[in-house]
## 1
Amino acid sequence: KSLGNIVQPWDVLNVHGADALRWYLYTDTPPGQERRFSSDLVGDVIRSFTLTLWNVYSFFVTYANLDKPQALTVTAPTNDLDRWLLSELNVLVRDVTQAYENYDVLNATRPVEKFVEQLSTWYVRRSRRRFWKNDSGADKQAAYSTLYTALTTVAKLIAPAMPFLAEELYQNLVRAVDGTAPESVHLAEWPQAMEEFIDESLNREMQLIMRLVSLGHSARQKANRKVRQPLASAAFSVSTPAERKAISTYADVISDELNVKQVRLLDASTEALTHTVKPLPKQLGQKYGNKYPAIQKAILAMNAEEIAKTFHSGGTLVVTANDETFNIISEEVEVKAMAKEGFAVAEEGAYVAALVTDLTPELVQEGLAREFVRRVQDLRKAAELDVADRIEMFIEASAGLRSAIEAHKDYITSETLTSKLSFATPPERSSVVEDEFDGEKLKVGLIKA
C-alpha cells in the first residue's frame, strides 16, 4: 500500500459495482491461487457476461411488452431449438447445483457464462423470427415460455454470486407478473433439474453444428466474403456416421447460419484441400540429434494426407528410418492446409468446412438486397421507430442496386415491415440516409406508415 501499487477496492466498486467484482473473483481462478487483478479485468465481466445477459433480457421484455404472452409455463417442447435450450438449461441446473454443494466455485459460475453466451448467440439469434411473427400461434408462445424459463432460472442460479443483478431480473420477470411469488429471488426455491428435459444426444448434435458453423464463418473470412453475401454451397468432413447424420438433420440450420444455398458432405476432405508437411528441425533435431536427417527424409517420403489424418485424429506418427522406429508427435511436424481453387477452407482437427466462393449474378443480386436491408434497418433505429412500426419507403438507387431491389422486393418489404415501396425522391419529412457500397449508390428515405 505504501508503494501506491494497489487497486483501491472502492474505486472498482464505484465504477463496476459489487456484482461484477464478485463474479470476477469467482470465475477467474480457483480460490487460494494467485491472480491478476485490475479494474479493467473486472470491467471485462460487464462486457463479456453482464451485458450479454441483460441484452437477452431486454430482447424478451421488448417483445413481451408488445405481445403480452399469457402462458409462460414450459410444456413438452416440439421445436428443436426449444428442446435443445431446455436440455442445456437443466444440465446447467444439475451441474451448478452439484458444484455449489461441493464448494466448487469455478464450476458453479463458469458454466453459467457459457450457457448465457449460447443463449444469446445461438438461441435468441436463431429464434428472432419466431418473436417477429404477427400471429400469436403455438410456436411463438413456445419461444416466449422457453426464453422466460431460461432467464428466470439463470436469475436464481446467479443469485449467490450476483445478488443485485439476480434480484433485478427476478423482480421484473417474476414479481411484476405474479404478486404471489416470493418477495425476493433470495427467498425463492432453488431450481431443480428436470431429467425428462435432458437429451445428451441432442446437446452433442447442437454443439457439433455450432462448431461447424464457426468453421464455416472462418472459411468465409479467409475468402473475404461478407456474411450477407449468399454463397452456392458449404461442404463438411466429420469423424463419425452419427456426425454425418447430424449434418443432414440440421442442414437447414447450417444453411441459414452460413447463408449458403446447399449443405452437403465432402466426398473426401481432399476434394476441397490438400496438405503439406514440414518436419521441424528445432524440435526433432534437439530430440534425435544426428538421426534427424534420416527422420526428415522418411517423413517427407510419406503421404502428406495420411500424416494430416493421423495428427488430426490425435494419433502419433510412426516413422521408420535406418531400421529404427520413431514415434513422432504433432508438435514436431508442421501441417499446412491448402484450399483448392474455388474453395475457402477452415480446418480444426478432423473437422473441415469448405465453402464454394464463386459468385453467380443471382447470388450477387441477393447479396446487394441483404446489404440494402441492413441499411434500412439501421435507418429505422436512427428514426427511433418501434420494432412493430410499419413504414413507407422511398428509394433512389444506381441501376445494379435497383435491379436487385426489384428482384427481391418481397423479401425486403417483409424484413423491413414496409407497407409501400416506391422508387422516388424521399419527401422532406422522411428520415433519409445516403450510402455507397459494392460499387452501388443509394439514397433511401422512410416515414411511418
Note: Residues 56 and 124 are 7 Å apart (CA to CA).
## 2
Amino acid sequence: MKQNLFAALPAMNTLMQSPAVKTLCDQYGYTLVKHTVQHVLTHWRSQIKAGDETEPTLALLVQQIQTAVHEKGDMSLRHVVNATGVVLHTNLGRAVLSPAIRDTFEQVAFGYSNLEYNLAEKQRGQRYHHTERLLQEITGAESVLVVNNNAAAVMLVLDTMVQQQEVIVSRGELVEIGDSFRIPDIITRGGGLLKEVGATNKTHLYDYERAITETTGALLKVHTSNYRMVGFAESVATADLSQLAHAHHLPLINDLGSGLLVDLQPYGLPAEPLIKEELKYADVVTFSGDKLLGGPQAGIIAGKKEYVDQMKHNQLTRALRVDKLTLTALEATLHLYQNPDKLLENVPTLRMITQSEATLANHAVDFMQRLLELPTLQVSHIKGESQVGGGSFPGYTLPTYLVTVTTPLYSATKLEAALRLGKPAIVARVENDQLQFDVRTLTATDDELIIQRLKELVSRDA
C-alpha cells in the first residue's frame, strides 16, 4: 500500500507544468513556487512513511501548493475592514489617515523629496522643519519636535531634562500602556530617578511640595488617558502644579498621551485636556500622532524653546527620528486643521467619533436592507455602544447602531472566523449568538466588501 502511494505522488515536473502552478509562477516567481512544490512533496513523503494512507492526487497537491505559496508570497500586513466600532483600534492600526492626503503622500512616497534639502537656500535642511510651523501654529508652542511615538517622546524629554535627577509624579499616574510598557520604567530608562508621591486614589499639591529637594529635576504629570479613576479620588490641576514647579525654578512636564487638539464637548463627549490649553501651564507637553489627532504614529514634543531645542541636539534624537512617510502623513494631516469648518469631514477619526445617532441609524437601515437581499440571512439592527479606543476617553462609550446577522448555514463564531480569515479580512463582533457589525467604523466601501463576502459564503454553502 505504501509503495502504491509513493508511486501515485505526482512528479515535480508534472506539478510545475500544471496550469494553476504556472499561474502562481507568473504571479509570485519561479523560485518561490519551485521551493514550495519541493516542500509539499517532501511533506507528503514523510506522511506516507509515517503511515498516512491519504491518496496524493494532483488536485489535492495543487491546492496545498496554492495555499502555501499564498501564505509565503502574500503581504502579512494588509487591509482590514473594522466592523468593531472601536475607532482607534490599536490592534487594527489606530487612526485611519484621511483620503484627502492620499495624493500628497503618494507623490513623496514614490519619488524623491526635499526631506533634508532647503530648496530656497540650495543647501542641507532639517527634516523636522516640515511640521514645525504647523505644530507651533496649532498648539501655540514655542518649539516642537517629532519622534517615532509618545513613549519615545517622554524618554527623550527625560533624558534631556532630568539626567540623574528626581522626577516627582503621583502614584495615581504611574500608568501602564500597551504591551506592558510602564511609566516608571520609561522614567528610569530616560535617566530620571522616580519619586512617587500621594496615594493611588488621591494626591494633593502638598504631596508634591513636600517631595521637592535640591535633587529634584522636574515635576511630571501623566494624563490617565487609558483609564478613569472615580469615587473617592483627587488629582492636582496642571495650573496648580505649574505654579508650584515654577516657584521652585523647576520645569513641569505633561505627558498627555492621546493628545486632543479640538474640543469635542459640543458633540456630547466628556471634557479632555486640550494641547493648547495645557501648554499655557506646562513647560513641555508630549502626545501621540495616531490617536485623537488622526494622523500617523508619532510622538510630538511641544513646549518652551529652551527645552525643546536641547532635545533637538540630543544624540538620542537620531535613534528616535521619523522617516519621510511619517512626516508627510503628519504634515498633510496637520494642514487639514487649518480649515476648521471641514475638519470633522476631512479627518476620519474625528468624523467617526462625532457621528450623530441619526446618521448612524440611517446607515444601519440602508446596510440592513441590502443584506436582506442575500439568501438565508436573518438581519436586523439594534442600538449598541462603541468605544473611542486607543487609550482615549476611558470609561466612556458612544451610542451606536449594530447590524446583526445570523444564518442557518453557519454558527455566529464560524461566520465570524470565515470573514476574519478571508480576503479582505473583516473583523466584527459576536454577541448573543449573532454576528454584529458596528456601522460607526464602516464606510460605504466597507459595506460593499462585507456584502460581497457574505454573498460568496452563503451562495457557496446554500
Note: The longest strand covers residues 392-406.
## 3
Amino acid sequence: MKSTIKFITAFLFLMTLLKSCVQKEEIDPIATICNSEEVVANTTFGEVKSLYQGEILQIQDDLIIEGYITSNDKAGNFFGTLHFQDLPQNPGEGFQINIDLRASHLFFGEGSKVLIKLRGLYLGNRNGVFEIGGVFTNAGGGLSIGRLPATQIRSHILTSCDMPQKITPSLTSLEELNDTMLNTLIQLRDIEVDPRDICQSFAVPQERTERQLRDCNGNKIILNNSGFSDFQEEIMPSGSGEITGVLGKTGNDYQLTIRDISDINFNDERCNGFVFPCDETIATTSDRIFFSELADPDNNSGARFIELYNSGDVAVNLNGWEIRRYTNDNTTISSTIDLTGFIIQNGATFVIAADASEFENVYGFAPDFNGTANGPAGSNGDDNFELVDANGVIVDIFGIIGEDGSGTNHEFEDGRAVRLRDVVRGNPIYTFSEWRIYNDTGGAETINMPQNAPESYTPGER
C-alpha cells in the first residue's frame, strides 16, 4: 500500500514538473543573445523600407535591423503588434512588426533592444505605416501583412542582453507631424479632448474606439483606444496638457495610441478656459432643443438675434453643438456658432445676439451669447439654419438648404420667425406649419407685417 502511494505521489510530481516546463515553453518563445558577433544589424530602417515598391513582398536576403521597443501591451491598449524605433532618443524612423503573441511586454519591455532577422518575413506599407510580419489573403483576394505565428517568433526576433534604454519621446506639435515619426514615441503639449468626446469613456466595451484630440489652434488628431484596455471605462479628462504615445495613421489622418492612462496629463485649464462638468443629471444631446425665435427688426439690424429653447425635463450640455448658417441659396456652410461651454437649463431659453451691446440697449438685458454681424445671428432674413448636436446629428432646421428665402415660406426679412407654442421638439425637416412668420413681402402664406424692436419681439421668453 505504501509503495503504491509513493508511486502515485512521484507520478503526480513528475506530471506537475512536465506541465510547468510546457507552460514555460509556451510563454517563453523568445531567444536572447548576449554580445554575439553572429547576429548584428547589417542594414537600416530606410534601406529596408526602400525595398517596398508598391506591393507586399517577401524579403529574401539575410537582412537584420535593430531597434528599441516603444509600445507596451500591459494595459491592453496594444494587441498583436510591436512598435520600435531606430534610436532611444531623437529617432529618425520607426517600424512595426505584427506578432501572434499575448502579453508581449513580458518579453519586449519598453526600451528593450531587439534584432529582427528579416529573411522570410513580408514587408508592406499601409497608409504610410511600414510593417513586417506574416502574410494572409484578404477578402479582396490580395495579400495583407498578418501576424507572425508564435512558433516563428524565436526565429526572427531576438532580444539583446543590453540594459533597456530610457525612451525619450520626441516633443512635437500637430502641425509638425510627418510620416518619418510613425511608430515612434512622441509627446504633444497643450492638447485637450474635443468637446464632442468630453464626458465619454475612453472606449466602447470590446470595440476599438476613436476619440478626438485637438490643440489650441483647432488642429486635430485621433486617439486610438481599445475596448479591452484596463482603462476602457475611465472618463476622458476635461482639462488640457501633455500626452505621450506611439504615432500611427488611419487613411490620411494621424492617430495616437497611449501605452496606459499615465501617458495623459490633462490637469491644466482648457484653451478657452471653459470647464466641463460631467454630471449625469445633464444630458449631452436632446431633440428638445430647438429654434424658438429668429429676429431681423425692420428698424434696427443691430438688434438681430437667434433664440433657442429647451422644452425638456433636464438641462443639456451644449459642448460640441453648433448653429450653421447657409446664406441665401448656398449649399455649403457660410458661418457657424460653436456653443461649446454652455448649458441650457430645462424650460429655459438661450439667446444669441448679432451685437451684444446693441441688443442690451434695445431689449434691456444682456444676451447669453455674443455673436457677430456676419454670423448666424446676423442674418437678414433670407438664410437657412441648422442646429447640430455634438454627434453631428441635425436636431432642428429652419428653411430649406439651397433655396434663397426671398419670397418663400421661410423668409423673415425685416420681420420675425417665431415657433408655435405647441411645438416641443426639434425637427430636422423644415415644416412651415410649426412657425408664424412675419416679413415685408407676405409671400407663400407668410404675414406681410414688418416688425420693430423692441416691441415686436420676446427674446428670453417662451
Note: Residues 1-27 have pLDDT under 50 and may be disordered.
